[in-house]
Amino acid sequence: MATTLADDLRPLHHPHSWVTKYVWSQDHKVIAIQYSVTAISIGLVALVLSALMRLQLGFPGLFPAIQPDNYLQFVSMHGMIMVVYLLTALLLGGFGNYLIPLMIGARDMVFPFVNMLSFWFYLLSVIVLVAGFFVPGGPTGAGWTLYPPQAITEGTPGHQWGIATMLVSLAIFVAAFTMGGLNYVTTVLQARTRGMTLMRMPLSVWGIFTASVMGLLAFPALFVAAIMMLFDHFAGTSFFMPTMQSMGAITDTQGGSPLLFQHLFWFFGHPEVYIVALPAFGIVSDLISVHARRNIFGYRMMVWAIVIIGALSFLVWAHHMYVSGMNPYFGFFFATSTLIIAIPTAIKVYNWLLTLWRGDIHLRVPMLFAIAFIFTFIHGGLSGLFLGNVSVDVPLSDTFFVVAHFHMVMGVSPVLVIFGAIYHWYPKIFGRMWNETLGKLHFWITFLGVYAIFLPMHYLGILGVPRRYYALGETAFIPQSVHLANAWISIAALIVFVAQGMFFFNMIWSLFRGPRADPNPWGAASLEWLTPDTPPGHGNWGPHLPVVHRWAYDYSVPGAARDFIPQTEPRT
Amino acid sequence: MAQGIDREVIAPTLREIAADWSADQEVFRHTHWGKAMMWIFLLSDTFIFSCFLTGYMTVRASATLPWPNTAEVFALNIGGQDIPLVLIAIMTFALISSSGTMAMAVNFGYQRDRRKTTALMLLTALFGLTFLGMQAFEWSKLIFEEGVRPWSNPMGAPQFGAAFFMITGFHGLHVTCGVILLLIIASKVARGHYDKSGDYSAVEIAGLYWHFVDLVWVFIFAFFYLW
Ligand code: HEM
Ligand SMILES: [Cu+2]
């Protein structure tokens, strides 16, 4: 069962049967793939929901099967699935699991068994979430923010059971994440190979590591909020419930604080944005550096920017609550802290651009996605500067401007990075190459498509089109052009939706038919490309752990034999 | 004097910390992985309890009905006299004592004293069970004698019962898990499992968790019973 390998004394668990190898697996690479497949599958559900919403918004009245209640349910499930069950799970559970041990030169996570449990809890949370579609009344339609009192009050879709499955699922997800996150953090801190100092780690690891620490501190607030709302819902408590009139009658509840929920939710919700963004920042830095054959510009600055963004993001949550009637001094504080985050963020953007500057840029598919990310991220960040200011945010709040902003900055941007990352690491994960032409086609349709979708939304928002509206009807302040724009957005969205088929076809077809990949097709310097086997075998490194002598960014070093120097090459 | 401490203690310590963080392999030198992970878990759990307690403080402030007088609610009638906080004083004493026995268990663990470690861990678990038993008693007194419910409360704000049952319940759940953990590890100690592996860290890791649960109780005690 447990054997000890030559140069490290920790026993490694060796699977024997097919089941322990691929189902109840404790190997971080298998768990990563399990996480990713589950996350992408549930993400597809969210994508279908967005297509349904767009059908309704673009062509109101044409689809009588979509009732107002359904629309609200689609919005809520789409938002929650995308943010938590797709992006968080895929970036941390998927990429975190795959990349951390390989990039720091470990054989596995420190506690493989806990890591395995993490996946099964995640799967359970997804099953409970999906059960929401089948309970009486359907899933919750309270918006992904789930604000009480409305989330559990009659009149909101799914106020009976849909909200309960959602809250239970979230609580399970938090447990799953905690088990995973503890592993990621401890592995990075304690299980690096010889020579791998923190300041030699690839930025992908830094991003994932910081995001995991943040998750461990932010998800508790969501967990507590979910538990308290479950009590309000099932035990008749009044944590979040004031005295209200509902359906013509005074409720039994009294004295609760709806604002408390908002604070708890956003104390989780804002860091969550960066839990998704920081791994994407890290990964994109590595993609840019590898494919531009340039060392990352300002590595130390990049690391500190990640850490500082992570820390500051715990101090800005109430910028989501400017319209909640809070004290203007708080508004001032939160606007200031929000704008301060723009500084380290801008540093990162400049550093990406400076890395590209005079680089030997190879416009392969991963690089295209990485550069596209810089575009969408800058655009999303700029609209964020508007929304961070109280006086500008108040009229824009709850309009499509907000929808446009967060889709650019935390929807599209991380998704582009994920695509890039999948194209980038696919040859290592499966040992095959994908089809370049199909990949490029997928890229261009997706990239141009998301602009076609989300750019016009800014315009809608400035005109005052509210978000979470089933249909606009004939409203005086809404000009005809809005309807035209909505139809255009929907057509673009459907094209993008269909185009994703190319990605899935490419990935699945290449799995069986793709040409065999080189162990290091991009000429990358970081450890994961230096494994003795491709795909890496159990234990990753064969009998001896790699020894690291330099950082992960020695590209195009003057005088070197090749245009990259692997991290394991001794310094002369 | 102060300057001496500065130069002889603080500065070298800082230098050591910086050296550890900039070294390879391990940030916390020679620290069992499980121990490092437990510390990080406890940090996360601290946030859970902080959120619970913040929630409690918020609803206490937002409640529209008066908050019950805790000195009366938590009094025990002994010999015809209402004595405030007596039960909770005993409960807290039991839990704090269990931290003492746990610390001794860890100490004997490192001395490889199998019998004493087992005995002290069992004693710790026993203290934990005592605590849980008294908590059950207190809950039933509140529910059956005083009519406190999560949704209502004859003495005033319904948030009192809601927050009390939720938070002490969540803490009680932690204690229960702790007792189970202690029993498992104690049985492993007794069977000589750690003598074979040569590593008694599990005892210390369980101890960390146990001390944390005690520490949280001190806060809950202060916030619910003394405020
Ligand atoms: C082609 C891709 C996508 C399309 C067409 C799309 C479309 C939409 C639409 C139409 C709405 C509802 C707007 C409203 O009525 O208020 C929405 C809401 C939302 N979307 Fe997306 N979306 C896409 C991708 C994503 C991604 C990748 C994320 C990940 C962060 C995301 C996160 C959200 C969130 C958080 C909401 C808000 C839900 C709410 O208001 O409660 N979306 N999306
Ligand atoms: Cu925010």
From TrEMBL, chain A:
| Domain of life assignment | Bacteria
- Gene3D superfamilies, A to Z: Cytochrome c oxidase-like, subunit I domain
Q: Which GO terms describe its biological process?
A: aerobic respiration; electron transport coupled proton transport; respiratory electron transport chain
Domain (Cytochrome oxidase subunit I profile) ranges: 18-549
Query: Keyword set for this entry?
Result: Electron transport, Heme, Iron, Membrane, Metal-binding, Respiratory chain, Transmembrane, Transmembrane helix, Transport
GO molecular function annotation: cytochrome-c oxidase activity; heme binding
Q: Where are the transmembrane segments?
A: 35-57, 77-100, 112-135, 163-185, 205-231, 273-290, 302-323, 329-353, 365-388, 400-423, 443-465, 485-509
A single GO CC term for this protein reads: membrane
Write down the InterPro entries for this protein, in alphabetical order: Cyt_c_oxase-like_su1_dom, Cyt_c_oxase-like_su1_sf, Cyt_C_Oxase_1, Cyt_c_Oxase_su1_BS
Question: Looking at the keywords, is Phosphoprotein present?
Answer: no
State if ATP-binding is listed as a keyword.
no
- How does this chain sit within the bilayer? Multi-pass membrane protein
Subcellular location as annotated: Membrane
**Alphabetized PROSITE patterns for the sequence:** COX1 (PS50855), COX1_CUB (PS00077)
What's the family? Belongs to the heme-copper respiratory oxidase family.
**Official protein name in the record:** Cytochrome C oxidase
What organism does the record attribute this protein to?
Sphingobium chlorophenolicum
List the top taxonomic levels of the source: Bacteria, Pseudomonadati, Pseudomonadota, Alphaproteobacteria, Sphingomonadales
TrEMBL record, chain B:
- Indicate the principal place this protein occupies in or around the cell: membrane
Gene3D superfamilies named among the record's database cross-references: Cytochrome c oxidase, subunit III, four-helix bundle
Give the membrane topology, semicolon-separated if more than one. Answer: Multi-pass membrane protein
Which keywords accompany this UniProt record? Cell membrane, Membrane, Transmembrane, Transmembrane helix
Q: Where is the Heme-copper oxidase subunit III family profile domain?
A: 38-227
- Where is the protein localized? Cell membrane
Segments crossing the lipid bilayer = 39-63, 83-106, 118-137, 157-186, 207-226
CDD domains (alphabetical):
Heme_Cu_Oxidase_III_1 (cd02864)
In its UniProt record, a GO molecular function of this protein is: cytochrome-c oxidase activity
GO terms of biological process kind? aerobic electron transport chain
Q: Name one GO cellular component term.
A: plasma membrane
Role played: Cytochrome bo(3) ubiquinol terminal oxidase is the component of the aerobic respiratory chain of E.coli that predominates when cells are grown at high aeration. Has proton pump activity across the membrane in addition to electron transfer, pumping 2 protons/electron.
Subunit structure as annotated in this protein's UniProt entry: Heterooctamer of two A chains, two B chains, two C chains and two D chains.
Q: Could you say which protein family the record assigns here?
A: Belongs to the cytochrome c oxidase subunit 3 family.
Give the matching PANTHER family.
CYTOCHROME BO(3) UBIQUINOL OXIDASE SUBUNIT 3, CYTOCHROME C OXIDASE SUBUNIT III
Its recorded name reads Cytochrome bo(3) ubiquinol oxidase subunit 3
The scientific name of the source species is Sphingobium chlorophenolicum
